[in-house]
């Protein structure tokens, strides 16, 4: 018998973690953190001694951020793409810097994890008694989806997945055998994304309008994936005004550019990097605040990082604008700005004077593409709808039942499924 337990990401976006356990093999799929304003939240835990392997689907903190916890006293095998290893290192170091009081490990455990990690260099590996296969998931550089064949049962985990081409990456191409269980993200299971071309056009036009009006167009963006995507879009559309890059986006961009095999058009990113102004210190930041132009800076939800420094200026100037291009978790400053037009410390929120726009630059499948994936499943798998706010997971599970006849669930933390 194989048992799958939901450690996190049940009816929420964050702290992804799923345990796959057979009679002699135990594998953990992701182990992330849910970053909240008050304190981070973690998935359920398990003994590191019993782990035959940990698989990190990609570098974003909601999938990788708490994995070093298992390296305090043990060194279980951990698998990820090489670029994921590099990006995870910088993202978790930043998490420790911002939230170290609440994080139950230190930089030493992170270093041990990174040093001991095993690169996913081929499509297949053997973990315990499981045969494990990986495919690119088209989400961010290094992202993979995972197929586990254990004791005659096949379990597929989407991680975060995108099946359309973007300026940065090629889309995921899914080729699966018959399945017994699928764990699929539901982030945008109730939303159909705007066509990519329309989103790119809106970004370029909005940025142009703000800059030509004498303002700063601040684009808070995830340092990994979204910042590079925005650079590529502006370059592709021959945006002629100043572009400044700040925050952790700078380090991540250099790392990603060094892995051309992960990219759809490596030259496009290199060209975009060469014409951007790279902030080297406070002097450069002050210059960027004094002249019209675009500023791309992390974090994408305005929950810290360089983007918050620019926000203090642009929030009070009607000429300026904020273009949100990343998913905004409920309760984050970015989500409050998007929904209410307010920004500031908790209890001191004030209406902003600047222009605020949101562009649906998702690196996740939308409603129809997610259902297309499910309809492509062979066999009669149980389907777990995870990594989405509760209404998205519940709605997706109901639609799967109605349209495919598969058993589908919107599980919560701690739910177990036996195969």
Task: Describe the fold and architecture.
This protein is an alpha/beta fold. The chain folds into two domains: 243 residues, 4-Layer Sandwich (Metallo-beta-lactamase, Chain A); 163 residues, Rossmann fold. It is built from twelve helices and 22 strands. The strands form four sheets. It has a seven-stranded mixed beta sheet. Helix 2 runs antiparallel to helix 3. It is globular and about 65 Å long. The mean pLDDT is 95.
The gross shape turns out to be globular
Give me the CATH fold name of the largest domain: Metallo-beta-lactamase, Chain A
CATH class of the largest domain: Alpha Beta
Overall mean pLDDT? 95
Tell me the fraction of residues in β-strands, as a range.
15-25%
* Low-confidence regions: none
Computed structural class: alpha/beta
Question: Can you summarize the main beta sheet?
Answer: 7 strands, mixed
The CATH architecture classification of the largest domain is 4-Layer Sandwich
SSE topology:
Blueprint: E1 3-8, E2 17-21, E3 26-29, E4 53-55, H1 61-64, E5 78-80, H2 82-99, H3 107-116, E6 118-119, E7 124-127, E8 130-136, E9 144-150, E10 153-157, E11 178-185, H4 196-212, E12 216-220, H5 226-236, E13 243-246, H6 249-257, H7 266-275, E14 277-278, H8 282-290, E15 293-297, H9 306-314, E16 321-324, H10 333-340, E17 342-343, E18 350-351, E19 355-358, H11 367-375, E20 378-386, H12 390-404, E21 408-409, E22 416-418
Helix pairs in contact: 2-3, 2-6, 5-7, 11-12
């Amino acid at each position: 018998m194989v048992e799958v337990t939901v450690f996190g990401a049940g009816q929420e976006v964050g702290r992804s973690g799923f345990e796959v356990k057979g009679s002699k093999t135990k594998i953990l799929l992701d182990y992330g953190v849910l970053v909240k304003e008050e304190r981070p939240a973690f998935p359920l835990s398990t003994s590191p001694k019993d782990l035959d392997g940990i698989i990190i689907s990609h570098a974003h903190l909601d999938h990788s951020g708490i994995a070093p916890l298992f390296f305090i006293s043990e060194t279980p095998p951990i698998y990820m793409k090489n670029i994921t290893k590099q990006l995870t290192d910088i993202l978790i170091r930043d998490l420790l810097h911002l939230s170290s009081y609440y994080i139950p490990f230190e930089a030493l455990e992170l270093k041990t994890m990174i040093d001991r990690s095993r690169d996913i260099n081929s499509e297949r590996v053997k973990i315990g008694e499981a045969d494990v296969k990986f495919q690119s998931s088209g989400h961010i550089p290094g992202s993979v989806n995972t197929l586990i064949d254990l004791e005659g049962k096949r379990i597929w985990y989407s991680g975060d997945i995108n099946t359309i081409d973007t300026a940065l990456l090629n889309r995921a191409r899914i080729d699966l055998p018959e399945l017994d269980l699928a764990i699929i993200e539901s982030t945008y299971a109730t939303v159909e994304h705007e066509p990519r071309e329309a989103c790119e056009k809106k970004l370029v036009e909005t940025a142009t309008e703000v800059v030509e009006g004498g303002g700063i167009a601040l684009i808070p963006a995830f340092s990994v994936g979204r910042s590079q995507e925005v650079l590529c879009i502006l370059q592709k559309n021959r945006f002629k005004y100043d572009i400044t890059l700040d925050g952790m986006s700078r380090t991540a961009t250099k790392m990603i550019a060094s892995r051309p095999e992960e990219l759809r058009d490596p030259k496009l990113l290199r060209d975009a990097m060469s014409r951007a102004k790279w902030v080297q210190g406070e002097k450069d930041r002050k210059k960027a605040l004094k002249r019209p132009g675009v500023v791309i800076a992390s974090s994408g939800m305005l929950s810290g990082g360089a983007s918050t420094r620019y926000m203090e200026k642009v929030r009070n100037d009607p000429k300026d604008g904020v273009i949100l291009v990343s998913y905004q978790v409920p309760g984050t400053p970015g989500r409050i700005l998007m929904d209410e037009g307010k920004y500031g410390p908790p209890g001191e929120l004030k209406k902003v004077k600047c222009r605020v726009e949101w562009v649906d630059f998702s690196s996740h499948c939308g409603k129809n593409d997610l259902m297309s994936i499910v309809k492509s499943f062979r066999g009669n798998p149980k389907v777990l709808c995870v990594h989405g706010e509760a209404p998205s997971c519940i709605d997706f599970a109901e639609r799967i039942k109605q349209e495919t006849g598969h058993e589908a669930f919107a599980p919560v933390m701690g739910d177990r499924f036996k195969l």
